[in-house]
Amino acid sequence: MIDLHCHLLPGVDDGARDMEEALALAQLAVEQGITHSVLTPHIHLRHYPNTLESLTPHFHRFKKALAQRAIPLQVALGAEVRMAPELLLGEAWKGLPKLGSTEQGRPVLLLEMPYSHVPAGTAQLLRWLSSQGVQPVVAHPERNREIIAHPSLALTLKGTGAWLQGTLSALGGSFGVEIKRVAWELLDKGAYHYLASDAHRIDKRSTRVEHVLQMLTEGLGFEQTQVLTQDRPWAIVASRF
Q1: Which among 50, 56, 128, 137 counts the fewest CB atoms within 10 Å?
Q2: How many degrees, rounded to 5, is the angle at CA 21 between CA 241 and CA 212?
Q3: What are the tens digits of pLDDT across the range 36-61?
Q4: Whether 36 contacts 50, CB under 8 Å
């Protein structure tokens, strides 16, 4: 699996609390079949005012620690960016960490909505980013309360040209029956461009993904599961590794 959404970088957001937990998550990821991970710490002005410059030293320390422990997880630095005008409009998006790029060379940017609702103007913002040459990805739409009530809203966002990223643990039921139902509905409708772990901590929302991958293989078949967890993610990040 190629994981394009995880919070393994220690001490910078609500993910891994320290280096030991980060390394434990990385070791578990390897054991579960994850070979490459793009680390996506939150960038959120109010709670996690991270920047590419502030995150880079943390990334290099983590990469060095992986090598010292001989943990064969390949990593790159990205971010999960809160969908806010201050972070995205004008030239601001250019300074944000990207996941990778499309086959056409468009930078791929992972975006997060609030869980409570789909903010007014979200579709317009996604279209504007596309007009700037960006490929936006909307993280875990299945966990947004407004989309839970009206799953077709996720398809409306996809209709802007944005990609949607589903979360494996949501498909596995870790967030409850209702979110699992919406996640599988979106999956069945072909809404997701790829799936990721969104791993945070070793004791909750970890990199333990093998059982959900098995469920997907049984439900979708091996080829489609590979498209969602390996082929499409790798097409985005191949140039980074």
Answers
A1: 56
A2: 70
A3: 999 999 999 989 999 999 999 999 99
A4: no
SS3 167: strand
| Amino acid in the structure at residue 158 | K
155 burial level (CB within 10 Å; 0-12, 13-18, 19+): middle
Unique residue bearing structure tokens 């791993």: 199
74-77: strand order across its sheet:
2-6, 36-39, 74-77
Tens of pLDDT along 64-109? Answer: 999 999 999 999 999 999 999 899 999 999 999 999 999 999 999 9
φ and ψ of 202, to 5 deg? -70, -30
- CA 95, CA 53: separation in Å to the nearest integer? 9
The pair phi, psi for residue 190, each rounded to 5°, is 70, 25
- Tokens 């309360």 locate to 145
Run of H or E including 163: strand 163-167
Domains and CATH numbers, the chain: 2-240 (3.20.20.140)
Amino acid at site 181: R
